[in-house]
Amino acid sequence: MYALRDVPGKGKGLVAIEDIPKGTRVLLEQPVITTPERQRDDEWLKTHISQQVDSLSEHQRQSFLSMHNLYPYQNVAEQSLGIIRTNSLPIEADGIGAGIFLKACLINHSCDNNAQKNWNQSIKRHTVHALRDIPKGEEITIYYLGLDSSRAIRQKKLQDKFGFLCSCRLCSLPTEQSQDNDKRLERINRLDDLIGLDGMQMIFSLRTLRYVDERVHLYNEQGPGNSGLPRAYLDAAQIAIANGDLARGHVFAERAVEGWRTALGSDSKETIEYGSLAQNPAKLQLYGHSMKWKTSSDEVPQGLDPNDFEDWLWRREEPRKLDQLGQLTDLRNYKIFPGFAALPNSNSVDLEFYGKVDGTYKPLHYWCFLGEIVDSITLHHLELELMDVDDKKIPLHFNTDGRGSELEPAKIQRGHTVAVLYAQRHVFMYGDPGIRHENPQMLKIFPVSLKKLLELNDQVQQFSTKVDGTRTCHGCSKKAESLNRCGKCSLFWYCDNGCQRIGWNERGHKADCKLLKDPDLRGLFVLKWD
Ligand SMILES: [Zn+2]
Ligand SMILES: [Zn+2]
Ligand SMILES: [Zn+2]
């Protein structure tokens, strides 16, 4: 399956001499030398190690003594200690701290490793599994460090502890991409804190599930077969099960088990333990903590397209509703988004806009006034000067209880756009006619100009709507029946990663996607006002 070969820049390493499929157990090994878990002084260690070296076969002894050594030595005992410090892998069971494995210790490091090492306590062997398909000729690599960290920190640790400068794919990325990668890692670590490190601290809320969803998304952006995935899926399973949702709990637990089976093998503790959880999610102690999301294991929906299935699984209700409604509105529709001149007057009931329901007048349809902030002053109350869709300037007076102080000051900025639901024309005692704003819930401010807001809406209509069974790729403008949607906003669709990159970097989706994540803005686009 593999052979010891020269690897450019790294000395020797294990190289695949045939295609190795993902999940293959590449190595299964017992240690030839071990060191204890407890701290011991060098003299004690040297004796302890020498005894083990002496009892090795001649072939094993030679293999051991030819291993890389970062430490100076004057005799075989010191050399052996140096080799162990340089090469040993953790065992952390039965009082043993670490051990030398004649094959596994020959595997080089990569920050983008294609294989995973693990001490499997159930079979008391060290294993190495392919995390993804490893093509013939590719070097087999493992990850030497603990937690993922930024390039600078990784490189320093590898240099200090193992004496080499890592030149793996991730470490050789151009500066900008490397910074993106570091940011991703930083966010993953931050999410780790937000999610909580174990079941005891975790809050089993939809918000926490959102964090896990984001984390899985970031892992997948990092590359295939990330070893953090099974843990993330287990977190998701626990959140679902704690809320009585056995269907999702089952799917998440199966994904966790699948990940561990790949990385650690069918006989690992994790695969076995969580395999039985996937079979029977109701057995988890957390089950029934709440029954808010109650489902049974057999309620997993069948026949959904993969994107819709993921939306269901992660309870991403918002984007789904948007698609189901299919009621994307046109912000240029003057009847729904009228200029100031077309608003009903406040001094009488305009029966084009209002009808009587149970004795009181209610709006007959949806309308919303849009205006861009051109100025603001605060005297008795906040007053904004707005430019409407007809390029006409009008004042908006805050007659709310807070007189405008209820708004985040950062939102009141020239160039931001105000939306007022069911706005009316009001004639003030003094000054120009304008809008008299009383109920804080009827007003929203978006951090974007009116022109930009309209353009974004045009784009969403163009790129997220299906016409005659096809959508248009936002990267290359080709029409196709099956495209992949942007995992962040679910509104733009792409042929592949290449087109998505073009959309993101060259066609402005990076900034737009951020705007489109705002539920209020999405709501505006589907006439939904919460
Ligand atoms: Zn690296
Ligand atoms: Zn395309
Ligand atoms: Zn997006």
UniProtKB/TrEMBL annotation:
Pfam families: SET, zf-MYND
Naturally occurring in which organism (per UniProt): Lophiotrema nucula
Alphabetical keyword list: Metal-binding, Zinc, Zinc-finger
Domain SET: from-to ranges: 1-145
CDD domains xrefs: SET_SMYD (cd20071)
Signal peptide positions on this chain: none
Record InterPro entries: SET_dom, SET_dom_sf, SET_domain_protein, TPR-like_helical_dom_sf, Znf_MYND
Gene3D superfamilies noted in UniProt: 6.10.140.2220, SET domain, Tetratricopeptide repeat domain
Every MYND-type domain range: 473-513
Domain of life the protein comes from: Eukaryota
Protein name (record): Uncharacterized protein
Molecular function terms from GO: zinc ion binding
